Predict the structure.
Amino acid sequence: MKRICVLVSGGGTNLQAILEAQTSGIIKSGRVVLVISNRKAAYALERAKTAGIESKVINRLKCGSREAFESALANAIEAAHADLIVLAGFMEILSPAFTRRFERRIINIHPSLIPSFCGEGFYGLKVHEAALARGVKLSGATVHYVNEIPDGGEILCQKAVEVLDGDTPETLQLRIMKQAEWIILPETIEKLCREGTQEETI
Ligand code: GRF
C-alpha cells in the first residue's frame, strides 16, 4: 500500500474526491496519510479532520523564507514516509531543488487541457477566464508530474469538457471539476500507486 500526502490551499474538493475514491474502492493501492495546507483557513483541513486524517499547516510567511518553507514541507513528507505527493489546489510554486528531490513523485491537477491556459499566473478562476476570453469550445483538466517548469511536467491523464454558451468562469470551473478533475485525479493516483506497487514486487 502506497502512502499519499496531499498538499492543499483552499476548499479541498479534489481532496474530498480522493477520500471518497478510497471509500468506494477506486483507490485501493494507496492511502492518504497526511494533508498539508499552506493556509490555516483552508476548508480542506476540515475535510481531513472529518476523515480522521492527520493534517499540518505549513505557512511560507511564518517559515521566513522559501528555503525554510520547503524544508519544513520536505521534512513533514519524509516523516510521513509518503511515496506520492499530490498537489490538489496547492497555491505555491515549488522550487527546482524541491521538485528534483521528489522527482516523479509529485503530481498536480490543472483545470485546463495543457498546454493551453497553463504556466505561471494561470491558477483558479484565471484559467477559466482565459479559456472563455479565447472562445475555446473544449477545455478540461490535466494531471501531470511536477517538475521545475510550472505545469510543464509529463502529462499523465487528460479529460476534455465542453464549454457551453453563456458559461461564466464559475460555471465552467464547476463543470470541469465535476466532469474531469474529481474523476481523473483519483484514477491517476490509483494507477500510479498500483504500478509502483507492482514494480516493487517484481
Ligand atoms: C482546482 O480547480 C484545481 O484544478 C486547481 O485548484 C482548484 C482547487 O480546488 N489546481 P479544490 O481546493 O480542490 O476545491
Notes: The domain at 2-201 is CATH 3.40.50.170 (Rossmann fold).
